[in-house]
Amino acid sequence: MEVTHRDTRGSTTTSSSAHRQEGSGGLWDSVKKAVLVIGSGFLFLAAFGNSLTWHLQRFWGASGDFWQNLWTTLYVAFEGHDAALFFLGTVLLPALLFWLFNALLLVVDTTGKPSFITRYRIQVDENKPVDPVKLRQAIRCVLFNQIFISAPMMVATYFVMTWRGDPCGPELPTFHWALMELTFFSIIDEILFYYSHRLFHHPALYKHIHKQHHEWTAPIGIVAIYAHPLEHVIANTLPVLIGPVILGSHLATTTLWLCLALVTTTISHCGYHLPFLPSPESHDFHHLKFNQCFGVFGVLDRLHGTDTKFRLTKQYERHILLTSFTPLTESIPDTPKDKLLDPKNWE
Ligand SMILES: [Zn+2]
Ligand SMILES: [Zn+2]
User: Which residue among 78, 173, 202, 231 has the highest number of C-beta atoms inside a 10 angstrom radius?
Assistant: First the structure.
């Protein structure tokens, strides 16, 4: 299958010269776009954090810093059991959030309802409903990766972090410092994920490892961590963990980052381009076409020219933050040209 797609590389890029001529201006554009995505994401997080804090403080009548008080309570409750606290924050909490979010998505995927969600489906004819056999196999693999790969890796990370500093210290970092850290983690993740992901597309590695993740040409949420164990270590987990290790981050920041990373990767695989959520178009396109859009934010794809075909498609036009309730497949409908580009229509 991969070979078929590779053979098409030359034939579909004939009209891309105009786009290619953008040169470094195009790259600068992508950098600005990525900064906008990261920046607006964190602004949203800051606003959400502030209003959540305000409501919590009003509701609980708490005085002072709500989050510091909450952390102090946990810190005292787990006194002398830092490892357990670390395990709670890096394994149990992120996994719980992952399954809560994915349970909601799975209801939509398996029932095809409610229609106010399914109308945002990116590949409109796929997963209606999702194949139950394929789904069960994916769930088994995801659980295996979480229990036998992620959890032991977090235990190892605990030892690295405690050797490096005090991840479970009594004082939380300031909110501004935490935002700086999250920005740094995002950049490290983009770099490490892009190159490790591209490496797994090398024919020698693809066949034995990454092909499994690509069994889903129309992915769903849980496919985010449906991968060969080795890929789960190198491309999924390490790029996310190395940032916190470099900065010797506090457990609270690491937990927040792991939760964010799991939610955003689930969104990028979920198969629905929903309003007011980050666009999943580029990674959905990666699953459809295999040799385009390897990164998260798209800066490295622009730099290395691994998005030239993507930028000629309707999916690229739809690769925006949807700020209305009209599905993008309706406001920017497919043209017959796109149907020709679809390998499924070649037979
Ligand atoms: Zn994927
Ligand atoms: Zn891939």
Answer: 231
Kindly give the distance from the C-alpha atom of residue 319 to the centroid of ligand 1, in angstroms, as a whole number.
Answer: 16
Which ligand minimizes its atom distance to the CA of 282? 1
Distance 284 CA to ligand 2 centre (A): 10
Residue 58: both structure tokens together: 């009003």
* Ligand 1 centroid – CA 36 distance (Å): 23
Of the candidates 223, 272, 266, 279, the one whose C-alpha atom is nearest the C-alpha of residue 41 is 279
Residue 334 pLDDT grade (very low, low, confident, very high; cuts 50, 70, 90): confident
Does residue 93 register a pLDDT over 90?
A: yes
Residues contacting 108, CB < 8 A, separation 6+? 114, 117, 118, 272
Ligand minimally distant from the alpha carbon of residue 224: 1
- pLDDT tens for 120-138 read 999 998 988 899 999 999 9
72 C-alpha to ligand 2 centroid (Å): 42
Distances (CA, A) of 99 to 57, 180, 227, 259, 318: 28, 28, 17, 11, 28
Question: What integer pLDDT is reported at residue 22 of this predicted model?
Answer: 45
Please report which ligand is nearest the Cα atom of 236: 1
Determine the distance separating the centroid of ligand 1 and the alpha carbon of 218, expressed in angstroms. 10
Query: Could you give the CA distance from residue 68 to residue 64 in angstroms, rounded to a whole number?
Result: 8
Least confident of 92-106, 111-125, 269-283, 328-342: 328-342
pLDDT score recorded for residue 263 = 96
Q: Report pLDDT for 346.
A: 58
Q: Helix (H) and strand (E) counts for the chain?
A: 19, 0
**Backbone φ and ψ of 90, nearest 5°:** -105, -15
User: Could you read off the pLDDT of 141-185 as tens digits, one per residue?
Assistant: 999 999 999 999 999 999 999 998 999 999 999 888 988 999 999
CA of 227 to the centre of ligand 1 (A): 9
Q: Which residues pair with 272 in a beta bridge?
A: 121
In order of 51, 56, 58, 64, 124, the CA distances from 61 in angstroms are 15, 8, 5, 10, 48
